[in-house]
Description:
Layout: H1 7-10, E1 16-20, H2 24-30, E2 42-46, H3 56-66, E3 70-73, E4 97-102, H4 107-114, E5 120-125, E6 147-157, H5 159-166, E7 174-181, H6 189-195, E8 202-211, H7 216-222, E9 230-236, E10 241-247, E11 254-257, H8 259-262, E12 277-281, H9 286-293, E13 301-305
Parallel strand pairs: 1-2, 2-3, 3-4, 4-5, 5-6, 6-7, 7-8, 11-12, 12-13
Antiparallel strand pairs: 8-10, 9-10
Amino acid sequence: xxxxxxxxxxxxxLHILILEYFTGEQLLDFIxxxxxxxxxxxxxxxxxxxxxxDELIRKIFxxxxxxxxxITFDKSSIFLSLPDNDIHQISYPNIEELxxxxxxxxxxxDLLKLIPNIRRLHVNLGRxxxxxxxxxxxxxxxxxxxxxxxxxxxxxWKFEDITNIISKMPYLERLVLYLFTDDEHFLNRQNCIVxxxxxxxxxxxxxxxxxxxxxxxxxxxxxxWPSNYITSLCILNExxxxxxxxxISFNLSTINIPPTIGQHMLPCWKYMEKVKNLNIYGEFSSIxxxxxxxxxxxxxxxxxxxxxxxxxxx
Length: 314
């Protein structure tokens, strides 16, 4: 793409810029042209495709003379990386809202150092061999952050990991966690009460809890939650056991359903009216799908992966 003209002179009153279906290379070239827009404060990037460039995040944060207050990527965009040398770059106090896909959880701490005045932060993490938060130790408290969402189902999280993250956010008002874990500390309400700041007003979570065996203690721990606030479902197959645990009402806009979970959690869907983006993996019959989507009145995007059609008797 070649934009030699000064775009700010052509569109001097531009307030929101939406970029769709760019490749990483195209965006890297185009973003340098975004400058001197005095009213442009929001950048919305959708369906960003490969290739990934390490310097892309820094380029985007620097765009428009550091005047963007809101930068968002949708979940269909690629996961981005944050090079180690970015931690020595200037911070971006202008950014108040950020929704981003990060490829590695250890980049979270480096990211937080760059956005000291962030107010709303939603992070979708990619697949890593294990959870590592070494970069979090030197992060100052984020005193302006009131809305935090962490979406990560490709790594196994420990309760201590989440506690360490939230400890940097003393004035949170809204917390959303979508995680995979094998740590029973998440099952006990008292642990969660200790973890969250006193300023918290809303808390929503959806946990995939993996266990090798079903113990009676699991049910005892879950009973510490009031029945009108949390629901759980135990799912078994030949190789593993899952418990899905989520708040009522379920307040996430996106959900991924693995086959071992999706085929058994149908009774819970009445609590999920706000889901807008549904991803289903594995083998489902048409009846299974209909029983799920009948409750999702706000559904806008529906992705079905590797589905096997099979006849189902009525």
